[in-house]
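Bump. Still looking for SnoaL-like domain-containing protein structure tokens.
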Amino acid sequence: MKNSMIIQGLMASALAVSAVPAMAQTMDHSAHQEQAEAMEMDHSAQGMNHADHMAAMNDDVAGAEAALVAYREALVARDGDAMDALFADESFVYENGKDEGSFTHYMEHHLGPELDAIASFTFGDPTVAVTRMGHLAYGRETYTYRIELTDGRVIEREGVATSVLAHDADGWKIVQYHSSSRAPRNR
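Sorry for the wait, here they are.
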């Protein structure tokens, strides 16, 4: 009888302990369900379902991609004002291992003077990919470029760039841009 009472006590303890995880899973699931319903209600209050919300997010990523493409197009056009409009006031530019400061400083002390010496600037094989993270996005680019200078010299390079963009009421602005290049390798 004593062994029977011990076995019953152990079984009762085992059942009590095994019930806790099952109840915790149920409670966690219901909490998750409540969060999901609250999020769905938030989307509904905005007149959006999940598919609409995801489409809006993708359109917004397209806006960040468009900002990076616009920067490349402004370089080709050698349009300093168009480039400046794409950067946040507090921005950071890094090029080939050098801290160039803000975009404004970069234009005044580096890129701006170079633009006057360029006869032609073309990009080849450009790729751009952007990933959004809330009000920020980061971009990754690869490309080749060819610069013909007014003195007849030609510069050909393979390049990469990474960027951080921030989104506000005015749209996407580049807050950090880092590019590097090298002479093309023989393939």
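The helical segments are 2-45, 50-77, 80-85, 103-116.

Edit: fixed formatting.
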